[in-house]
Amino acid sequence: MIYETVFIINPVLSEDQAKEAVNSYVDFLKSKKAKIISEESWGLKKLAYYIQNKKTGFYYLVEFESEDNNLIADLELTFKRDEKIMRWLVTKLDKNAQKYAKRRRTKLEK
Predict the structure, then answer these.
(1) Which CATH fold topology does 2-109 show?
(2) In angstroms, rounded to a whole number, what is the distance separating the alpha carbons of residues 6 and 63?
(3) Domain edges within the chain
(4) How far apart are the C-alpha atoms of 37 and 25, rounded to whole Å?
(5) What's the pLDDT tens digit per position in 54-90?
């Protein structure tokens, strides 16, 4: 099954600290035998509403494939425990979403 997760990292961190946090989640997924399909940094963006008294956050998207049914619960628990993560969303991609994600990736590569 293919999933994607978008998470927002606290903007008070430096860009290096934010990348370090992203790398820790990618390593976590790899340790659970998930195959990373793509990673995207959307950069520092303005939030639609205040989260933890912050107006902005670093947005990241990670698309991955895994057959482990417990992986998503473990990933969300890890997000909950990390103070650097302000919000997250994990989504299972259906066939149409997978096609769209592939088109989006190829467009970004050009």
Answers:
(1) Alpha-Beta Plaits (3.30.70)
(2) 9
(3) 2-109
(4) 14
(5) 999 999 999 999 988 899 999 999 999 999 999 999 9
